[in-house]
Amino acid sequence: MAQKNIVTVGFELNNDNVNYCEFNSDSSLLDFDIILFKPDIDEFVSHNDMFEGKPSLNDHMSFQLKDRIQHWRREIVESVDCGKTVVVFLSELTQVFIATGEKSFSGTGRNRQTTRHVESYDNYKIIPAELNVVKTQGQEIKLAPKNSELIASYWKEFSGESSYKVTIGDKVPPCLLTKNGDKTVGSILRSKNSNGALILLPYMDFYPDEFLDDEGDWTNESVQFASRLTKSIVTIDKAIKNTGEVTAEPEWCKSSDYKLKSEEKLDIELLKIESELEKIQLKKESIINKLKDCGRLRNLLFEKGKPLEFSILDALKQLGFSVSQFENGESEFDAVFESNEGRLIGEAEGKDNKPLNIDKLRQLALNIHEDLERKEVESPAKPVLFGNAYRLQKLSERNDPFTTKCHTASKTNSTALVFTPDLFVVAKYLSDNKDLRFATKCRKAILSSVGRVNFPEVPKEKTTKKADTNKT
Q: Residue 453 CB: number of other CB atoms within 10 A?
């Protein structure tokens, strides 16, 4: 028998023959024969606000989570329909609140409040089955009297390493039950139209202490476990294929001569839905592209290179500058920007784990002189160095973004030093609020500064108070 192509989603196995796919990806599952899935959404729920005792995701993370869950649910359905075996390890129920996209408003002027509507969501929406998930835990599990033959050998091998984190209700056929109470904790859902199956199994810890050494590398125990698990799952897959062989419908049988009238009606309904879905998908893609453009300002917090340069140009536009990049056969400037207050030339650089030094100041000084040599330029531009130092660290943990030499040299050359996260704060405010007076103050702050620029404080009265509420 040919070797099975196996992939894990949401967890890794130490086996070179097993592929790994991150949960937060757009990967297809159709390239694989067997899919092992863990519905873990912990990466989405850290560092979020709380509402009614559960994490409340912001608008961006709400969209990301819902998009991922819908993606994997669709992939699981298609995989089973195509004859694949999908095994889901039932991890802990993780409940969150996500934004519905609806908002309501109350009050006027400075007392105006925005109420952000949210709804309950959880990781089990990934599973395309009618489940009644209840959060609980235990280890005493037994094989169900019926429907458990396919996993009997698996359970003999892994019952000691399994535990239940949830029960899943009585609307799916049980293959594993709690020892007391006969609550369903495992199920096998076989496709009626293919050799595929969705198998729901109790939780297993794929990263116990003995699987990783002190350096975080895999141990021999992890190799042995991965080998045992894959062999057992392949055995289940083989048994499913042998006991549930479904013959693919021949092409000649698909002729209209054999088609039922009820099928024709359903085909028409399906075409209409497909057409609507296509329009919705195009609209969704358009909104996603706009969302990416709107969020580009955040590159000021963590990017380098061209992405940092483009976000600086976007921010300067918010401040009311006319901006461009300049390049000819001899010179290249990261940013050329001007307003009624004056003309400036900027250089940008991001550093992973260190401050900006005087190297960029030398380049900036050279750019100012080259710019002045152009016939259409009558006076030297104001030099500005945009720096995103320690870009991979949290803002609260970053040191001075410019070296002492850089501060000293900036005074000699009358150079303004702009820490790009500082620029983000004022650009974000101006993106959210039309405030021409504040924009002018920000432009003047750059033009008048020698050394690090201290932007004016964002007006507090312009901020909007938000509250979460359940959608009724």
A: 20
Helix (H, G, I), strand (E, B) or coil at 454: coil
What dihedral angle (degrees, nearest 10) is formed by the CA atoms of 21, 27, 28, 31? -50
For residue 122, how far is the Cα from the chain centroid? 16
On the question of pLDDT at 367 being above 60, the answer is yes
CB neighbours of 297 closer than 8 A, spacing ≥ 6? 311, 314, 315, 318, 424, 427, 428, 431
The model's pTM is 0.62
What mean pLDDT is predicted for residues 293-321? 90
Number of residues in the chain: 472
State which amino acid sits at residue 103.
K
- Secondary structure letter of residue 53 according to DSSP: T
Report d(CA 293, CA 313) in Å as an integer.
13
Contact 361, 409 (CB under 8 A): yes
Beta strands in 209-364 (DSSP E): 322-327, 332-339, 342-350
Closest CA relative to residue 201, chosen from 157, 244, 241: 157
90-121 pLDDT, tens digit per residue, is: 999 999 999 887 877 777 766 777 777 889 99
Residue 283: what pLDDT? 87
How far is 182 from 162, CA to CA, in rounded Å? 17
Single-letter amino acid, residue 121: Y
Interval 235-275: pLDDT, tens: 999 988 887 555 556 777 777 777 888 888 888 888 888 88
Q: Count of CB atoms within 10 A of residue 104's CB?
A: 11
d(CA 168, CA 127): 11
Note whether 88 and 199 are within 8 A (CB): yes
- Strand (E) or helix (H) holding 312: helix 305-318
Q: Are 354 and 389 in contact (CB under 8 A)?
A: yes
What is the C-alpha separation between 27 and 40, in angstroms, rounded? 16
Please report the DSSP string for 378-402 in residue order: -SPPEEEEEEETTTTS-GGG---SB
